[in-house]
Amino acid sequence: MTTITKHPPAAAHKAPQRSNRGRGMVKLRDLKVALLFILPAMIGLVAFSLVPTIRGIYLSFTEYSILGEPKWVGLDNYTAIFKDELFWNAMAVTIQYVAINIVFQTVIALGLALLMHRVAKSTFVRGALLLPFLVANVIVALLWFWMLDYQIGIVNEIISWMGLPRIAFFGSDQWAIPTIAGVNVWRHMGYTALLIFAGLQAIPQHVYEVASLDGASPTRTFWSITMPLLRPVLALVLVVTVIGSFQVFDTVAVTTGGGPVNATRVIQMYIYQKAFGESDFGYASALSVILFLILALVAFVQMKFLKGNESDLD
Fold first, then answer.
1. pLDDT at 30 over 60
2. Burial level of 267, CB count in 10 A (0-12/13-18/19+)?
3. What's the whole-model pTM score?
4. Concatenated DSSP letters for 21-70?
């Protein structure tokens, strides 16, 4: 009688193991290649962003002048901030600037984006809208500073020729902040319009065709289809523009320097003056940390209430 011994198919069990090991080696190799490409950016991020941020937070708890060593003072800087009238004035001026800049920039950029989407199909026209954004902000500020000069500015020359009184655009506390906001709106509206235009192109055309067949007017289509489907893009645009508006500095530094009196001393200008004008780097660092927390809170609230991570297309 012959006994037949059955052996388990060992090869069948080993093959998947070799396959999984091979996939693991490929993934490890891909990870090493990816890290090699990311490494230069990571070095820059750590050296020029993360390390200065950590040191700035540390300095905010110290009394520090560039001529001496940091002296730990705990929460004294933060306590002084809440009693600082100039800080609250700077925040009020900044909020006024942000409100004017955001409203006009968003509305004008939305109008330009709609024109690019519906009317202006030329690549040249679309590219021309970006030209102001490609010019350095300091140069733009100087250009408008000369054009709006009270004595020799071409704008005031035209106003005088029309028989109207000249306007001290940068020298009046009523006109200074709206003028600075207008300069920055002119520079950034093309870039903002481009972002919104990209969102318009992502809306499926058949949605508009269905609305047209249902007899919806252009106004009804805009408010019922375009605006709801643009919500994620508009949320991103608002977050970017609000953060950028709170950080306005160069236009103010070139045109008014924070004057007249304190009418245009925005929070970034106040931080600069405390750090490099008065050599109070500890207090300036505390102001910077407060500004960082405000911007983080504003961005969170915007994304939460505007539902920027959701889309009606889903």
1. yes
2. buried
3. 0.85
4. HHHHHHHHHHHHHHHHHHHHHHHHHIIIIIHHHHHHHHHTTEE--TTS--
